[in-house]
Write a structure and sequence with these properties.
It contains eleven helices and 14 strands. It is α+β, with helices and mostly antiparallel strands. The chain has two domains: 213 residues, no CATH class; 107 residues, Roll (Pdz3 Domain). It has a four-stranded antiparallel beta sheet.
């Protein structure tokens, strides 16, 4: 009996250590980076910041700095926020609607208070404060990737077809062993991993490959050859049970060819920037494929999937974990730029409308937009979490307990 009780206690502890801990660590770090972007630009614009919270809900602990800003950690570690002076709602706007009969009008701010209130700032300043959060997520990703490439090196496998599988899309297109892949769909290929990612995101859509034919050991002629390849759609299932659609052309990478390519500091930043641009482009393409029905929405993951991958990368070592943090930071910045009310991109959309109209949207319009945005985000969160539960087999497990 004691052994069973010990197992019941040790299993959740081990699960949290392996997956929950790394997930909370990386998410809290990226939330801090994101919110710090809002905070520091707000301070630069002369806006007073009331509170800076990592997490939502009840405050667990915190402190107040000399400027009057309350820094705190809150109960639910799934996000965060920066509250600025004058914020009365998520739209961060001054209320202009007529006060209803029987209601007391809100206290009018003094001129000194308006100077440091967020809503009283010009549109350009408010937009700068809002866009600073996603922007610094991108900057953070570039810096940590550049640090890895400079100190550790960039993983590199020559983009050479070591083998071409029989009756594969590559063979049908005319590829031969030892062909060097130079570009795919107009994008320059540096490593075999670049080719693998291009095929994975392209699914079964035709691809244009530019290759060079081998003339000897590590030698290729200078005449490029253009081939049209139709990848084969296949499905991978990782060790957690998450299913991913991918495209394959049927070539193998050189065995034992993995090396770490060293970069000087400017080169490290250049390749880190290219990587963040490629990640954004791939994410945008995958999102478009889901909207068009080309890629299944089953691949849309939520908190459980992120937690599983965070733990998995943490167990592979610090380099893998830092790489995952960079990937997640880019995606966090990208998602927040989407023009959905409640997100930074939604606020930027409202500010663009305000700039065009010459005045803010009415309170009622903003309220409706925010409600729709909130409902949409809640739907996406529930849908993504359901996907995770189904693919982790937790739904089947619960059904087996009930039946």
């Amino acid at each position: 009996m004691m052994d069973i009780l010990l197992d019941m206690v040790s299993v959740p502890i081990k699960f949290f250590k392996d997956y929950g801990g790394p997930f909370i660590l990386v998410l809290s770090l990226l939330v801090f980076v994101h919110e710090w972007g809002h905070y520091i630009v707000a301070r630069m614009c002369g806006v007073k910041v009331v509170s800076f919270s990592i997490g939502f809900g009840r405050e667990l602990f915190g402190w107040t700095d000399k400027k009057g800003c309350r820094w705190k950690f809150s109960l639910i570690p799934l996000g965060g926020y920066v509250q600025m002076f004058g914020d009365t709602d998520p739209a961060s706007a001054e209320h202009t609607e007529t006060v209803q009969e029987g209601q007391e009008p809100p206290r009018q701010m003094t001129p000194e208070e308006r100077k440091v209130a967020f809503f009283a700032q010009p549109v350009s300043r408010r937009a700068a404060i809002v866009i600073a959060g996603p922007a610094i997520n991108y900057i953070f990703a570039i810096f940590i990737l550049a640090g890895l490439y400079y100190f550790q090196g960039q993983p590199y496998i020559p983009p050479v077809a070591a083998g071409v599988m029989e009756d594969s899309p590559a063979e049908k297109a005319g590829m031969q062993p030892d062909d060097l892949i130079v570009a795919v769909n107009g994008r320059k290929i540096v490593s075999f991993n670049d080719l693998r990612k291009e095929a994975a995101i392209n699914l079964d859509q035709p691809m244009t490959l530019v290759i060079k034919r081998s003339t000897g050991e590590r030698e290729w002629n200078s005449a490029p050859i253009t081939l049209n390849v139709n990848p084969r759609l296949e499905y991978d299932v990782d060790r957690f049970g998450f299913r991913h659609a991918t495209g394959r052309i049927g070539i193998s990478s050189p065995r034992g060819a993995m090396e770490m390519r060293e970069h000087h500091l400017p080169g490290a930043f250049w390749y880190a920037t290219l990587e963040t641009i490629n990640i954004t482009g791939d994410t945008l393409k995958a999102l478009g494929q889901m909207i068009l029905g080309v890629r299944s929405t089953d691949e849309l993951g939520g908190i459980l999937r992120i937690g599983a991958y965070a733990g998995d990368f943490a167990q592979r070592g610090i380099v893998a974990f830092i790489t995952f943090a960079a990937l997640l930071s880019v995606n966090l910045g990208f998602i927040n730029l989407l023009p959905i009310p409640m997100l930074d991109g939604g606020h930027l959309t409202m500010y663009a409308m305000e700039k065009l109209r010459g005045k803010p949207l009415s309170d009622r319009v903003q309220e409706y937009m925010l409600r729709v945005g909130l409902l949409f985000l809640l739907f996406i969160m529930v849908f993504a979490t359901w996907n995770d539960l189904v693919q982790l087999k937790l739904v089947d497990y619960v059904k087996s307990l009930i039946s």
